[in-house]
Design goal:
By secondary structure, this protein is mostly beta strands. The chain is built from four helices and 26 strands. A hairpin with a 2-residue loop joins strand 2 and strand 3. It is elongated and about 75 Å long. It comes from Acinetobacter terrae.
Length: about 350
């Protein structure tokens, strides 16, 4: 049976995996219509809005970032691009921000390279936030080009940001302001530090499906599968005509008498994912599941990079680091909605950490 693996599958399986995660605050994401917000384990929230699907010829996005803690100002960036035409550098002067037809002045571009990336000033940010609960027409334009960021979903997304940072009902809320001070808002947390312990970079043993030892180890791995939240079959292998067949298992030596077992679990139109488990070096006992979406393993680090569609304009990336005892998840990053920016446009984190 052919299985469709979506990025939502990755998110669900990630949340259910029993490995250690480098966080005290539980990261959270939310998307609605043309806006989304990702809040990380540090308490920082990043909300992004994009053009409507009918305006894909001129991709446009705004990123609003706010750290946790009292009296934290919102920072804003924007990105502007084009699909199918080259933006002429001599025609990029005096791009201005218009909110419901009102001119809020020229925006600052960091460079003329595409996509165009720039920042909004305090007056422009305040103007944008004043309309957080109203219909808003967000236009970037000059005499040559026009871009529009949709407001559909903006209010709901900023409300989720306030809720995560416990600002609802306070003087610092973006949507539902109140009279309460910010003494009880979510406190910011530093990025956790994880020390990587190097391990073998190449497998010491490869088990083929037609061997007895393979069957024993494969049974242990499949017994450690997470509780699935969608209809796909867990790590069924690669389709051979009409039948999915399990693939070879590679074993890597870790430390502390542990080994890493990996096998190719699935392959789609433009992604594939390896399963990863930790076992005792005796290859007996209970296995610990890490992920079904691994892309690479090297010397104590498992990484995953999965694109949301064939154009490669949105990516989900994750990382797990071996600390000598277990794999710690140190990265969970999304590059933003699939809206026509090659490679994705923003770094939206659920988990961020420092690795040394």
């Amino acid at each position: 049976m052919k299985v469709f693996y979506s990025l939502m599958s990755l998110i669900c399986l990630t949340a259910l995996s029993p490995f250690t995660v480098a966080q005290d605050i539980q990261g959270r994401s939310f998307s609605y219509l043309d806006w989304e917000v990702h809040c990380s384990n540090t308490g920082t929230c990043r909300a992004a809005g994009y053009q409507t699907d009918s305006a894909q010829a001129m991709p446009a996005s705004i990123l609003l970032t706010r750290q946790a803690g009292a009296k934290q100002a919102v920072q804003a960036k924007f990105a502007l691009s084009s699909d199918g035409q080259t933006l002429e550098s001599k025609k990029l002067k005096n791009i201005r921000l218009y909110l419901n037809g009102k001119d809020f002045g020229a925006v600052h571009l960091n460079s003329s390279a595409q996509p165009l990336i720039g920042t909004l000033n305090a007056q422009q940010i305040n103007g944008l936030l004043q309309y957080a609960q109203k219909n808003l027409k967000i236009i970037f334009k000059n005499n040559h080009y026009t871009w529009q960021v949709s407001d559909a979903g903006m209010t709901a997304t900023l409300l989720k940001m306030d809720d995560f940072q416990k600002r609802t009902g306070t003087v610092g809320a973006l949507v539902k302001k109140g009279s309460a001070n910010e003494s009880k808002v979510l406190a910011a947390q530093p990025k956790p530090m994880v020390k990587k312990v190097n391990t073998a970079a190449k497998p010491y043993l490869t088990l083929q499906p037609n061997t007895e030892q393979y069957q024993v180890v494969h049974t242990l791995l499949m017994a450690a599968q997470p509780e699935l939240q969608d209809a796909h079959v867990f790590c069924e292998g690669i389709n051979d005509e009409t039948v999915a067949k399990p693939q070879a298992i590679e074993l890597y030596k870790l430390t502390n008498h542990k080994v890493l077992a990996t096998t190719l679990c699935w392959r789609g139109a433009y992604n594939e994912g390896y399963g990863a488990w930790v076992l005792e070096e005796s290859l007996k006992g209970k296995a610990t599941f890490v992920t079904e979406f691994a892309s690479d393993f090297a010397a104590g680090e498992i990484s995953s990079a999965q694109k949301g569609r064939g154009l490669g304009d949105c990516w989900a990336m994750s990382q797990w680091i071996w600390n000598g005892q277990t794999f710690v998840k140190t990265l969970d990053r999304w590059t933003g909605m699939c809206k026509g920016f090659p490679g994705g446009i923003w770094d939206l984190y659920l988990i961020e950490a420092l690795v040394r």
